[in-house]
Amino acid sequence: MDARIDILFSRNCLPSAAFGTIDVLRIANFLWRQRHRKSSAFPLHWRLIDARGRTVKLPSLICDALSPSPDSRFKAPPARTALVLCGLNIESPAHLDETLAASTLEVQLIKARHAAGGIVAAYYSSVALPAAAGVLDGREATITWMLGGWFSHTFPKVKLDMERAITFDGNVLCAGSLDGYIPMALELVRHFLGDELAQTCANVILHDSSRYKQSSLMLSTLAKRTRDGVVFKAKKWLEEHIDKAYDLEAVALASSVSTRTLLRHFQEVVGDSPLGHLQTLRIERARQLLEITVLDLSTVAEKCGYRDTRAFRRLFKSQTGISPAEYRQRYAVSAEHRL
């Protein structure tokens, strides 16, 4: 399952793609480890290379920021490798022509890697490099709109499709926009680790307002505070004991008042009883655990203070309108929403 991604630091490259791609791969590795807790290894390995295929050494400060990193010396069969081309920092089509003319080593590397069966991935202006190498002849590609006319004229054998943000044809992956390295990296995750993990990464990385509106991440009960000292102390105790059995006497003791005074203050300030508030906290905690963990339902229920899974399931459905299983399928980071 392991794969290696080599990121080419060519002349005039835009380094954002290099480190942005690494960020996506690191997130993918983290999510993979969350699902394979018995494994101490990472499935995706990467390194920065120059046009001769040699590893580029980074300053210690950057290395520390990227730690922990997989083994950059990991060797994979060609079919489990990818060569990522950073965008080129060019001023004009004429400047790009000059850059391509001076990129003999890069073009040779691209040809060799593609011929061996590896993936070549380019975005923004660097799509010109695989085109210059001839590996896009007869294949679909996309590029930044600013270079569309120049590209179609310079490389007429390439099937340029400016309507698409990303193309993947004949082991050549192209993304058109300046930030195209993100969907490009996600597509590499999809290719090497599967649809589900790639979708998980997309759900984590990409903005989707509907997820925020519908998921527990927007709920503020856990974060709300009150200026009423009695209620503040009571809420704090309840938040810290979500997984424990409800004890009104203990809540009142923590609030330094009688149970009767506590119930009156709580109703006046919160509009609910301490037990009702605790149930709301527990359901919010359950929603968060269902979204961001792979814990089984009985464990989720236990962490939310319920020893009876069936009772928890009934209460959850009464509060949310759907069962815990349905909620996880719809809102978990592994939910298969389309990109």
From TrEMBL:
Classification via Gene3D superfamilies: 3.40.50.880, Homeodomain-like
Listed GO MF terms: DNA-binding transcription factor activity; sequence-specific DNA binding
Domain HTH araC/xylS-type intervals: 232-330
SMART domains per UniProt: HTH_ARAC
PROSITE patterns in alphabetical order: HTH_ARAC_FAMILY_1 (PS00041), HTH_ARAC_FAMILY_2 (PS01124)
Family annotation (SUPFAM superfamilies): Class I glutamine amidotransferase-like, Homeodomain-like
Record's keyword terms, sorted: DNA-binding, Transcription, Transcription regulation
Protein name: Helix-turn-helix domain-containing protein
Species for this entry: Noviherbaspirillum saxi
